[in-house]
Hints:
Helix content: over 70%
Shape: globular
CATH superfamily: MFS general substrate transporter like domains
Structural class: mainly alpha
Oligomer: single chain
Amino acid sequence: xxxxxxxxxxxxxxxxxxxxxxxxxxxxxxxxxxxxxxxxxxxxxxxxxxxxxxxxxxxxxxxxxxxxxxxxxxxxxxxxxxxxxxxxxxxxxxxxxxxxxxxxxxxxxxxxxxxxxxxxxxxxxxxxxxxxxxxxxxxxxxxxxxxxxxxxxxxxxxxxxxxxxxxxxxxxxxxxxxxxxxxxxxxxxxxxxxxxxxxxxxxxxxxxxxxxxxxxxxxxxxxxxxxxxxxxxxxxxxxxxxxxxxxxxxxxxxxxxxxxxxxxxxxxxxxxxxxxxxxxxxxxxxxxxxxxxxxxxxxxxxxxxxxxxxxxxxxxxxxxxxxxxxxxxxxxxxxxxxxxxxxxxxxxxxxxxxxxxxxxxxxxxxxxxxxxxxxxxxxxxxxxxxxxxxxxxxxxxxxxxxxxxxxx
Length: 408
């Protein structure tokens, strides 16, 4: 019972992270224009920099948080993160100048480094052969949050551009109280690893893990694929407003539909796929479907087409937990926090790069002075990047037997 409640808490933490992101997506274009002024294209550029600042902090601090969880445990790291996340949303709720929005995103990026610790917790309680399936639960929880976040955002947006931030603070604070009572510690003295600053940073962590066979290429694939996948949160609000003239409610509805599919795919469908395909084959299968969806978003012109493509693109999300499963089985047991911290840093680096690149391309291709009008151009770039990832995985030879030997 204790283990089940703890699992519920960590999955709720992931879901609330997603709710916190999704709940503000429908109001971000209006909020940025309210605070900074300017048109939609200008707001997209500001939105890109705000997203990039958030991700930069995750990039810098995810290995530190992961390393701290290997040393001091998953429990204190998760609870402190939720406390400061609650305070950060309250700060964003009162921000009326752009520098406060940036400050809130910087602090939020540090406090939102929980995915690494959640993944390490899942790894702690999972058998080696079950890790890929159980990492799918993380994706499913994110999908649920991705559903509820935009829906809540659309609802709370009716009360003003600040209301979604206060709602996100309430969710994070409530989950903090739950975790205080139900979360046990899973780091034992057998797997506890000393905290080392030389490894508790993106460069040191990557250097340490890159010595393991195959992980260097796998980390490159993770980075490039995440840059491609991040096109959705980076550009979706601006793309759908420009292409279809959507209101916040329709943006929230579309993201909710996508989130429902992600929850189904990563909570259930990936388990079916892994019965018939290896983890590597599952990665390739997911990336192929992702490419189909991205190309479609590059050219569609009608609202109904968006909802027709969502099931295809969401099936592509089986690739990420399968890729995490390969990486986790390649690393040592006492490196799981470090590994998932590095993965979180790679994801954060992608979230830093992608908004700047994708919003910049969007700005160019919707500019009246540019000879080609193509709001979906960022999706086409993402499709090309995913194709490169498929090629790297296809030619990779990697050992995926579980490693239980403790490395110093």
